[in-house]
Amino acid sequence: MATDTTHFEFDPGFTDDRLRVAWYAVLAVLLAVGGAAMILRITEGMASTNLTSTTPWGAWVAFYIYFVGLSAGAFLVSTLANVFGVEGMHRIDRDALFAAIISMVVALMFVWVDLGRMDRMYFPFIWRQLTSALSWEVHAYVAYIAVLVTELYFSMRIDLARVAERGSGLRARLSGLLTLGRRSTSEASRKTDRKWLTRAGIVGIPLAIFLVHGGTGILFAVSKARPYWNSGLFPVIFVVSAVLSGTALVMVLYVLRTKLLDDEPVDRGLLNRLAVLLAAFIIVDAALTGIEMLIAIASLHPHEVETWAIILFGEMSWSFWWFMVGMGWLFPLVMLSKREWRETPWLMVLAGLSVVIGIIAVRFNIVVPPQILPVMEGLPHGSYFPSLVEWVTSIGMIAVGLLLYTIGAELLPLTPLDRGDH
Amino acid sequence: MSSSNDDVQPGVPAVDTAAMDAMVETERADPREELAKTDHDTELGIAMAEDAKRVSRGETSAEAYWEKYDAAAEREFGDAYRETPNPSIESTDQTIDAGTADSLSCTVGSMESVACEIDAAESLEEAEDASAAQSVEGAGAQTETGERRWGMVIDLQKCVGCDSCTVACKAENRTPPGVSYNVVMEEEHGEFPNVSRTNVPRPCMQCEEPPCVQVCPVSATYKMDNGVVNIDYDRCIGCRYCMIACPYGARYFDFGENYDDEVEEAGEITSPEYGVDRGKREDGESPIGNVRKCSFCTHRLERGEEPACVETCVGDARNMGDLNDSDSDVAEMADSTRAFQLKESEGTDPNVYYLK
User: Fold this and answer.
1) Does the A11-411 domain belong in CATH 1.10.287.3510?
2) Is the pTM value of this prediction over 0.80?
3) What is the largest CA-CA distance in chain B?
4) What's the pLDDT tens digit per position in B35-87?
5) Is B352 on the interface with A (CB under 8 A)?
6) Greatest CA span in chain A, whole angstroms?
7) Pick among B188, B248, B255 to test the A interface (most A CBs inside 10 A)
């Protein structure tokens, strides 16, 4: 093993100090502005949003399901290595798990800020409702985060022990704490870790697919009052688009961290595998969305047809055509079409970011359109575009996620010390 | 004459009291003429009236009066005199002493106590009639649980679309801007000149199978035994899932806005919705940040009043009552062939019925 040599070096942070300062400065600005918006949100209450009683769910709900999806997707990518043993994926499994945890933290922040009574956020753990998907979801999220943390622990423990043993300073002390006392670096302990990693992953896969993200889809799909959501295919599309965005995120993080933090050459074979996976998910996602649309329109149900008309031709149709179809599907598909391009790191970053942003539009187009048309003829029509407070608090909460990820990437052995080729 | 022109007050017409007495005298019916219209003894009547005036002037006592006339009155009026309680006898505050009262041949006791006895006797008879009627009409057709299920029936033929229900509701429930428990949905059909218009008032449907209750993650909204869907503002976290689930758009989020610009001290009084008095409306206090909706004016129902919208309806289009009571007006109307519910296909089974 590479780390068993006499020379030990563990310095996972930015290789370029100027880049580090610039990045933290950007995050500081985003956090400050986001914090100011958050103060407005808390003092003015929900009146600071552009939500109405006709359109009660908006940007924060869209971002919430977006980050839940990102998390579920990233986690499922990590299981390719941990459970299914796909060749050469171990290098990214911790990164994927860590991103999945941060995404859940960000998702829960969005849920929290969206509550009319933020002070009552713990109530769902005191009072429950068996028939409420949301009540189940809240508990599924907690269980899911527990599985993710367990996974990350077993995946990273042996390297934490190595850093604690041979490293020095803050990182070594922190790593020592995070091993939870299991400091052995023997092959036997590694085997035990692998075994539990697989077991937790096997529990986590159905949890992530059916309860966490499928469940979030069910939350919408059970709303009979909104025919656009009320379809069996809906939770499936939720999961597929989640995996899509998660794969794209992991690909972007892999390239950026390898280049900017590890300063190593990108593994082109791995990049190509991720890119092919991404292309496959895009095709499945687009196809299922097409099926969903055809069924809806063929039903001739007025609410369904009109909702699709709003999506395709309404005042927000630009978000469907440019962001969802353009950035989410078409542009990345073109980028992913040639093997040469798939092995070019910066092009894949571009394609990945395009998908990550495109899926945001997917989430907005899930949440908002069925709340534009009134549930009954004679009630007022809705019209919604997020307010400045909604946008800036969203940016602030995303910045919190980026900050947490960066701190983790600077302190933890997210890239396996043996570079994943064991 | 006690009043003179000296103490004339500004704004008060100076009227001679003697002249006023004379006016009363001309209007007063002649006692002899009036009594002559009855079958009874005119002379006795005149004598009793004259002596009654002396009693009221304090020239003689009530005891002496009744001792003097008791025998004569019994002779004149017979059974009617004996059965009618003497108005000068009150059980708590007698105007004649107990000894005299006992010596009289008429019924002793207050009018009130006699009236109560009559009422009790009558209602007993009615109850017997009713149970007899029910056992005839449909034995076992309806199990009487004794539970009330509040329901509303709105006659669309009678609704003129004046929106006064909406206004009465806002006044009663003191709902803030953007929150309106009741709205009137107006639909126009046809093309000029063959146009018709339907006004559909929409309160909360108080569904028997409420989708809003089904989705609430903290059980803050629930169905009460009387059929009304309640919201516990102290538990609601404001997630708005119920608004997504409601097929009638009957739920509104309280964004904390006020009518302060329109009305002074607009938030000083709030309505005791669901029977809970929350004092004045204050920032950050429930129901701000909660989801709100029509409660069928539970606070009014509890004190025996109709909901504000029902009470105010100019066309008498709205009716309130117990749907579990098959004899009630609303139950009969809800059973009629004209009756329908909104979005029946949703399976929510509203307790608000409409008449076509």
Assistant:
1) no
2) no
3) 86
4) 888 888 888 999 998 888 888 888 888 888 888 888 888 888 888 787 777 76
5) no
6) 78
7) B255
